[in-house]
Amino acid sequence: MQGNNKRLVSLMIIALILSLQLISAFAVQGYVNLRFGSKGSEVVKLQQALKNKGYYNSTIDGSFGRITERAVINFQKDNRLIVDGIAGKQTQSALYASTTSAVSRSKTTRSDDVYWLSRIIHAEAGAEPYQGKVAVGNVVLNRVKSKDFPNTIYNVIFEYYKNIPQFSPVADGTIYNKPSNESIKAANEALNGARPVGNATYFFNPNKAAGTWIVNNKSYVTRIGGHVFYQ
């Protein structure tokens, strides 16, 4: 009788070990669809992987917001996946695979540059005169060239400092609005070398913000429309 009990205990232990192994295997292979609004440790893992590959340049906070969504979309485009902004099984498999060779966001195409530059121009200077639109593009490109800022248009636009986006349209979501034809034209002109504000790397509207730090630490360049520019 005692021998039977020992065998029963042994079988139960073996069954438990096998169950744990199956659970472990499932945990490694399993996934959860991550999309706008998702939160938690899986989003942290996603953001870190995107950041490691050069797609995410913001705070890793475990919150799937618009910046994370855009990073997922860019990764999907570069890896010829279904572009939906949702990190499902296919996207996660490609992202977490050690052999995945993603295209760095520092290697962008002209169309990528026009896409994002025209959007920040439209969001920041949609109501400004045409020269003011080109000037905003000029500032963004100056930042790309400066050692004090990220080295791509996308990363300059989505740069955060102390959890605060450097450009307010990123915070309020207007960065995703469709740009006007004039904003697209201004983006192309800036990319072609137009420099109406020279080496300026800052601008603000004094009717909407004091710009105290800029005024006290940077040199005034000029004013175009409602914006003043500093370098």
Helical proportion?
Answer: 40-55%
Q: In DSSP terms, counting alpha (H) and pi (I) runs of 4 or more, how many helices? A: 10
- Mean pLDDT equals 85
User: Which H/E pattern describes the elements?
Assistant: HHHHHHHEEHHEHEE
Description:
The protein is mainly α. It folds into two domains: 75 residues, Orthogonal Bundle (Muramoyl-pentapeptide Carboxypeptidase, domain 1), CATH 1.10.101; 121 residues, Arc Repressor Mutant, subunit A. It contains ten helices and five strands. A three-stranded antiparallel beta sheet has the order 3-5-4, covered by helices on one side. Strand 4 and strand 5 form a beta hairpin. Helix 5 crosses helix 6, helix 5 packs across helix 9 and helix 6 packs across helix 9.
What layout of secondary structure does this protein have?
Elements: H1 2-29, H2 41-52, H3 66-78, H4 89-96, H5 110-125, H6 130-145, H7 153-157, E1 160-161, E2 164-165, H8 168-172, H9 181-191, E3 202-204, H10 212-217, E4 220-224, E5 227-230
Antiparallel strand pairs: 1-2, 3-5, 4-5
Helix pairs in contact: 5-6, 5-9, 6-9
Brief synopsis:
This protein has helices at residues 2-29, 41-52, 66-78, 89-96, 110-125, 130-145, 153-157, 168-172, 181-191, 212-217; strands at 160-161, 164-165, 202-204, 220-224, 227-230. With 231 residues, the chain is mainly alpha-helical.
Supply the key terms.
single chain; 231 residues; mainly alpha; Muramoyl-pentapeptide Carboxypeptidase, domain 1; Arc Repressor Mutant, subunit A; two-stranded antiparallel sheet
